[in-house]
Amino acid sequence: MAGIKSLLSAGLLLAGTMITAQAATLPTIGVIGAGQMGGTLASLWSKAGYPVIISSRHPDELKQEVVSLGHQATAASVTDTAKKANIVVLAVPYGALPALAKTIDGDVKGKVVLDVTNPYPGRDGQTAQAALKQGVGRYSAGLFPGAHLVRGFNSIAAATLDSEAHRSGDKLAVPIAGDDKQALNTVSQLVEKAGFDPVVAGGLDKARLFQPGSDLFLSSLTRSQLQQRLNH
User: What is the pLDDT of residue 65?
Assistant: First the structure.
């Protein structure tokens, strides 16, 4: 009996060590914005083994969210998150991006920045109007000129991401767009680990195809369906 207990303990210790080792090899994801979208993505990546930092203007109020995400998750201020994370995810109201960029631009230079935000003129005013006119991908990239910005996860509702992750059969496809190939590869892996199928639409100009007001916005499509729509 004692021998069995020792074996079980050793097995649990080995499993814990393997999980810790896996987390140590994965990049740290910093999610700026702890709303529905930010929280959903943080949960999906945390379950996939990624160390996740979540942040908001009041990080001390995120204790419950950190507990629900597991031991690999922490909360931090917006600036600390931008400094510590290898990959930074923007999940704030679009109107807040210009001010946020002034705060963290120096800390995200050279990093992959995943922009999951959406501009709505009724909420975000002239910033949204300018972004939609220029194309959200280009406008967002202009706010963070030193970062490798990728647009993605903005065209599927957070509730759909939560319910359809890792579904059996054909997975839901997530369109992404960016100008840097390595950044696109990094985000493609994040899409896969979250339980979806990444489809590269092209450079940042192509992000216009799935921004608010487009035919692909809030669509739920498989890879083949999405590729067919993108090619039309």
Answer: 81
Name the pairing type of β-strands 148-152 and 173-178.
Answer: antiparallel
User: Which amino acid makes up residue 13?
Assistant: L
Quote the crossing angle between the two packed helices 36-47 and 181-194, to the nearest 10°: 80
Predicted confidence (pLDDT) per residue in 164-223, tens digit: 999 999 999 999 999 999 999 999 999 999 999 999 999 999 999 999 999 999 999 999
Among 69, 43, 89, 31, residue whose Cα is nearest residue 193? 43
Output the six-digit token pair for 67: 């507990």
pTM for the model stands at 0.88
Report residue 184 as tokens.
């696109």
Instruction: Tell which phi-psi region holds residue 10, choosing left (phi > 0), alpha (psi between -120 and 50) or beta.
Output: alpha
Residues 131-140 pLDDT 10s: 999 999 999 9
Task: Encode burial over 149-182: b for 16+ CB neighbours within 10 A, e otherwise.
Answer: bbbbbbbbebeebeeebeeeeebbbbbbbbbbee
Structure tokens at 114: 């995943």
Contact (CB, 8 A) for 68 and 44: no
Phi, psi of 201 (to 5 degrees): -80, -25
Arithmetic mean of pLDDT over the chain: 90
Q: Which residues contact 139 (CB under 8 A, 6 or more apart)?
A: 130, 131
